[in-house]
Write a structure and sequence with these properties.
360 residues, mainly alpha
């Protein structure tokens, strides 16, 4: 089956929309492995390629691409562990390959055409669904992603590049404007960093900085989930960087390049997180403390200078008390990333925040 791009009469458009919505409805009702596999076996291999072809051809028509992408979203969603392929089955890889083709086709197309009227419905809504699709693939536990690099298959790298391009297309000032887009964006970055921090860190310096700046904007969100997603993503990235520093590897040299070209990048996050924890009423201090600890290990000199600056800004009569409170942050904490040390630091931060508010 092929889709003629000139076939834009109402009947053709309604037929495509109806097909994708019907398949999505069937998939939503397929809550057992047996039911899901019946649908998958029907779709693969004869019909799945149509999805990528439709994305490639109809990218400029959001009335078609939205139900198409939502259908793929449902197809890749391993809810109630319904996607359970046999250990020797290639189906997980085949499913991701087709999904990658859809993501690549849609991202390439939609980013090439201008927004006519409504940026959310014409672009951001589809981007949100793409981010959710990618998250489902990363978290579904039905794809062995190591296979792709091992055998020179570009499906994974193509999908990652497409997702990053979609992210870069969103101005930083608009990341938090649309709630569904914001949630999908920062959830995607958290999932991406959890399994592929090396890819994010391996980006060009300008792209890496853009990702970090976006995460800093996420930290400002008043929605706790988005702020926590951002904090966890920063922690994943910075933890990866900390573990690589000192090694003689390409990725270690890449990290050094990021730090040399943007020496204030990580220190600025320390300042931001401390300001949020000290001066704002937040309930996710645990999430915020995790990246703060790793950032301090990477930037101890800056953290000491920041402490001195904050202490010096207080009235002379209170400076000794403030110094004692700040000294307690790293009390009993060894300089490593072991879980007990992270937990001890989080406990110290809770005591610090209580004491600092008592002094204010």
């Amino acid at each position: 089956m092929s889709i003629n791009p000139n076939m834009w009469d109402a009947h053709a458009k309604n037929s495509l929309m109806g097909i994708f919505r019907d398949i999505r409805g069937i998939l939503q009702a397929s809550l057992t492995t047996r039911a899901y596999m019946a649908v998958f076996d029907w779709l693969h291999p004869n019909f799945l390629p149509i999805f990528a072809k439709a994305a490639e051809t109809c990218y400029s028509n959001h009335l078609i691409t939205t139900p198409l992408l939502k259908c793929v979203e449902e197809l890749t969603h391993n809810k109630v562990q319904r996607i359970s392929f046999e250990p020797s089955s290639p189906n997980g890889i085949l499913l991701f390959r087709q999904t990658s083709k859809v993501l690549v086709a849609y991202s390439t197309g939609v980013l090439s055409c201008p927004v006519i009227n409504d940026v959310y419905h014409e672009r951001y809504k589809g981007i949100s669904v793409c981010f959710r699709i990618f998250c489902h693939c990363l978290q579904g536990s039905y794809v062995n992603f190591g296979i792709f690099d091992l055998y020179g298959d570009s499906a994974l790298s193509d999908a990652q590049r497409s997702i990053i391009n979609l992210f870069l297309s969103i101005p930083i000032d608009e990341l938090l404007v649309y709630p569904k887009l914001a949630y999908a964006t920062f959830q995607m970055l958290e999932g991406f960093s959890r399994t592929h921090s090396n890819v994010l860190v391996g980006m060009e310096p300008s792209v890496f900085v853009r990702i970090i700046k976006g995460l800093q904007r996420g930290l400002q969100s008043t929605t706790m989930k988005i702020s926590s997603f951002s904090a966890t993503t920063i922690d994943n990235i910075v933890t990866f960087c900390y573990k690589q520093i000192g090694k003689d590897t390409p990725i270690s040299r890449h990290i050094s390049q990021h730090i040399q070209q943007n020496p204030d990048l990580f220190p600025s996050i320390i300042t931001q997180i401390l300001n949020i924890m000290i001066y704002e009423e937040v309930i996710n201090n645990w999430s915020l403390s995790r990246p703060l600890y790793t950032l301090i290990l990477l930037n101890e000199t800056y953290f000491e200078q920041l402490q001195q600056q904050l202490i010096s800004s207080q009235p002379v009569a209170k400076r000794e008390k403030y110094k004692s409170v700040f000294d307690g942050i790293m009390t009993g904490v060894e300089r490593n990333l072991e879980i007990p040390n992270r937990d001890k630091f989080t406990q110290n931060m809770n005591v610090f925040l209580h004491n600092i508010k008592q002094l204010s």
